[in-house]
Amino acid sequence: METLTPAEVAGVLGVSPNRVRQLLREHKLMAVPGSGNSRIPADFLQDGAVLKHLPGLITVLRDGGFSDEEAFEWLFRADETLPGTPVEALRSDRHTEVTRRAQALAF
């Protein structure tokens, strides 16, 4: 998985590194667990922006009882029925199915 620093993400988004850290605090973006918010998956960015439906999906997962680590792992877990990972499905504009699955997992 390719990862970027907050400064690199800021360059892609055209914002300050402080704004990227704010997006992380607000759970609109996620860093690799254990990286201390210093490594952000490049897959979370598309066309110079945060992946369109990622912030809402993170909210659904967190509201469903997922820890940050569990949510991150779920986003990158291969699922033959999608096919691919939930992040790949989001990147392919199949957000409705991914969000539905996340809602069904809530506990």
Give a written overview of the molecule.
The chain has a two-stranded antiparallel sheet. Strands 3-4 form a two-stranded antiparallel sheet. With 107 residues, the chain is mainly α. Helix content is 48%, strand content 7%. It contains six helices and four strands, in the order βααβββαααα. The N and C termini lie far apart (29 Å). The model has no long low-confidence stretch (mean pLDDT 93).
Secondary-structure blueprint of this entry?
Blueprint: E1 3-4, H1 6-13, H2 17-25, E2 40-41, E3 45-46, E4 49-50, H3 54-63, H4 68-75, H5 86-91, H6 95-104
Antiparallel strand pairs: 1-2, 3-4
Helix pairs in contact: 1-2, 3-6
In short:
This protein is mainly alpha-helical and 107 residues long.
**Strands, count:** 4
Cα gyration radius (Å) = 13 Å
- The strands making up the biggest β-sheet line up spatially as 1-2
**Which series of helices and strands comes N to C?**
EHHEEEHHHH
Q: Given the structure, what is the number of helices?
A: 6
- Sequence stretches where pLDDT stays below 50 over 5 or more residues: none
Gross morphology: globular
Report the span from N to C terminus.
29 Å
Mean pLDDT across every amino acid position? 93
Main sheet record: 2 strands, antiparallel
> What is the structural class?
mainly alpha
Tell me the fraction of residues in β-strands, as a range.
5-15%
Helix proportion of residues, in percent? 40-55%
